[in-house]
Amino acid sequence: MTDACPTLFSPLVLGPVTLKNRIVMAPLTRQMAEPDGTPTDEMAAYYARRARGGLGMIITEGTYEQDGWQSKAYLSQPGIATDAHVAGWKKVVDAVHAHDCKIIVQLMHGGRVCDPRCLNGEPPVSASATHSGGWVLYTDTDYEKNIRAIDGPWPKVTFGPARALRVDDIHAIADGFAAGAARAVAAGADGVEVHGANGYLLWQFINPKTNLRTDDFGGSPENNIRFAKLVGDKIRAAIGPGKLIVLRLSQDGVDDFTGAWPGVAYAEAIGAALKGSAYDALHWASFDYAANRQTDSAEPMPAALRRTSGLPMIANGGIFDGATAETALTSGAADAVAIGRAIFAHPDWAYIVRSGMPYDWMPFDRKYVIRPPLDYGLAYPLALTDPKWPAP
Q: Where do the NADH:flavin oxidoreductase/NADH oxidase N-terminal domain residues begin and end (predicted)?
């Protein structure tokens, strides 16, 4: 064993939790749950295999926290809203803990980018009455049809116009996050991550492009982050001081891949508003953690958030090997690194990096996520057994 990446392989205290190293598996949307949102044995095996690869912590894929309020964003998305969900996640958590790895459940609400097939005829909800111009991911492209061996038309599924949430609605949804967090803890999780990034509901409040409100929940960075702070407060009251609470933030979203905040000054204001909040750490999600997309400062957004909030930072994006991970940690931008595609493709990423030996990393291709075709009307990546098939 070499001394490669000494910072990366040093322990880290995040609130009430100590990680054995600073390698975090980023949340990766897979839609592998049962149609009712119950986590599957396949999910337990998937997460356990990566925990066995030497990770310090896993952040699960986005999980809807309640059955109401148009929370569910995807077909076959896992939930943490029922007793069956809790039992399913307990299998996952126990399998991960068996490999000395922490695991937190990412709680998310889709907001205006919920798949309309999940909404039971109700409109999506958002910070303001806006309408996403995007569409449900991985539909209506030649590439997707090719890797799934689909013939014939495959319709693009678009989002409906969103209804603006009332203040009492906001509090009800925050209560749902708290209840979901309590269920995650009941399943044995070491805490939760609140998804305030990537275009989903809390992002729609934090981003001034989608938050057009003039009340206490909009109109300034401090007001835009207020909903996320409310969620954190209610979660802390529900689960107590002994569990980790992380807030994920980003500039871009699933329907705005080039989205940007109004400069690093905006990140500084968000960070300052989060100082002393219920969150133990922040998680910056980006295609490149060092790319600000604005020119008012060269300081990376996660570094500015870390500096002004006083909270530890998990940085994601543009980190794929030991050298890029160590740079993120020693530059002041991060206290831990979240790695997604590289760990998906190489479950033993941590051991490979720790060896210090040169390694020919396999390029990630989304076709490796897809199992052979089953029922394309259900979800992506469709690894569920077709109920019409005879038992083996």
A: 8-358
